[in-house]
């Protein structure tokens, strides 16, 4: 599997803002995982070919309208999950909301081996040859949103990153099919608005930019325009963990990266990620099973 960072394609009729970005992970010839942010300056419709197979699209925030042959127009507003099953030569048409960036995760399962790769899909979601594409959408569950955030914020490199994202792609496929096919999902699901998702991502950005002196939970909530309880619940829903645990894990991952890739000593690394040397050694050993000095 290879990881490539690319610029979104220049499509006729679409003006892409510089802040648009897309990560592409080619897991194998039958599966492609994409995640990123898309910004458009026009509300014109544009058309593109539909790949044969099943496309799972999670819109975490933002909004678009989508059309495929034989189906009514769908309004997809995050957080929402959508699938398009296609076995013919068709196109889809999309128009994007220019007021908000579209944050998305997409998994394409190709139909080269319908009885193998896609044979596990329920009949209601399988592409049918000779028929129009099928498009289904529904609200995204808490588990799916958390999984997409884990994909988008993966800090691993090289083959380990590839292996991690490959597993997450399969997990995303299974959870999405469970949700779209109406199978019962575990756990409760509370609603969260697209605007709140954006604020929660803004809170994460503030945290990772201030590892040495992070804001308190109350300060963080104030900076992103949320109350403490809503931020706490929303952060756990979007990222699958608490604010404190996310910060601690991010600090330790950054410390591990710096110890492996940079010349800084252990005390300097501890200071850069917001730990005292003594507390850093304890937390690092608990997380990785060895002391920071063993890395050097």
Automatic annotation (TrEMBL):
InterPro entries: Homeodomain-like_sf, HTH_AraC, HTH_AraC-typ_CS, PchR_regulatory_protein. The keyword DNA-binding applies. Coiled coil: none annotated. The keyword DNA-binding applies. It comes from the Bacteria. GO terms for molecular function: DNA-binding transcription factor activity; sequence-specific DNA binding. This is Transcriptional regulator, AraC family. It comes from Rhodospirillum rubrum (strain ATCC 11170 / ATH 1.1.1 / DSM 467 / LMG 4362 / NCIMB 8255 / S1).
